[in-house]
Structures are given as C-alpha cells and as structure tokens.
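Bug: token stream looks shifted between consecutive jobs. Job 1:
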Amino acid sequence: MVVTIDRAGRVVIPKEIRDRLDLTADTELNIDVEGDSIRLERVAGPQRRLARTKDGRPYFPATGQVLSDLEVQRLRDADQR
C-alpha cells in the first residue's frame, strides 16, 4: 500500500489499517526509525480489541478476567461522572 506525505509532513494511515488495529483519534503512537524504515507502535501497549457482530454492532470480546464487586462499582462510578 502506497501513501503520500503532504506538505506539512503528515501521512494518513488508511482506514482499513486503522479499523484493523482499532486506531482511533487521539491514539498515541511511538515512532522509530529502523534502517530506512519507519515503525509506528501503540504507546499504551496492546488494548482490548473492538470486535463486531455479524450485523456490524461493536463489542469487546470477553477476556476471561473476573472483576470483583468493588471493581465493578468503581467502573460504574467513573462512568457516571
């Protein structure tokens, strides 16, 4: 896939790649030069990947992690702020 650098030095990551890697606005990326290549990597490390149902609705697949009642309550409280 070929992309072009604009006059301001920006490169647009194609939508297909952004969707595949769940890269959204304000996602922080680390940029490194490796020989004559540029490498972009998510700063926060791997995040839960957004999946889609057959009809296109987004959801986060289960991770198998069990949350305590206290953790659930904290998440609810944070969401209501």
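Job 2, same session, no restart:
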Amino acid sequence: MHNPIPTHILDFIQTNHVVNIAAHTEQDFWAANCFYAFDQENARLIILTAKKTRHAGLMLENPHIVGTICGQIEKINEIEGVQFSATAECLEDKQAEKAALQIYYQKHPLARLKPSDVWVLSFNTIKHTGNKLMFAKKTIWERNII
C-alpha cells in the first residue's frame, strides 16, 4: 500500500487527460505527450504507446521518467498543474494488461480502434502547484514515506 494522494491532487489528475513525459538514457532523451487514464488505486497513469516509438524505446532502457500535467489556462489565478517522477513499465502480463485497458477505455473509448502497447507510469513523487486557493501553493506527495 502507498501513502494516500491528497484529494486536491487526485481531483486534478482525474479531470485532465494529457500527460507530458520525458525519458532518457546516457545517449538520448525525448519528450512526448500522451493521453492517459488514472488508476487511482495503484497511484499510476495508464498510457498507450507503441514500443517502437522513441520515448518508449528509452523507457524500456531506463524506466525512470519525469513528467507534467497541466491545463491550458490563461488567467494566472487559475494556474494548476503537477510535476512528477515515475517508473514506467510496459505491461506484458495479459491479465494486468486487460485490467489496465478496462480503466483506459472508460476514459478513452475510441482507443479500442487502434491497439497499442499498454504502459503504466507509477508515481514516485508528485509536486502539485495551484493558484486557486493561494498563489503558488505547493503540495508534495511521495509514494513511500520513511
């Protein structure tokens, strides 16, 4: 079991649907935008992306990634977003893949039309910034608190 994610962070992640991720190895780095579904129970995002893509190839070599989720807000007092570190895993187990796809298809039903590899991005740390209640309010969540 992991440390519970604060409600305002959960709400933000659940109401959005695009994540920007950055992956790297010693030789290369790349960023990508992906649609996601949030698996709240396991504190992770589910994305679909082919193993042959540049970012997926990097994640296969080095599963330690970072990313952001943010809305396209114009008013400074409405800015809200998260930065995070996560561990990426391409699901190979058919049962795990089926369970993840069930969550993903609820959020993105049209994705059934284009099968792809299923990945989970398990959050390690999340930093949430929001201006709605207090300017530049920061909340940090970590999966494992020692």
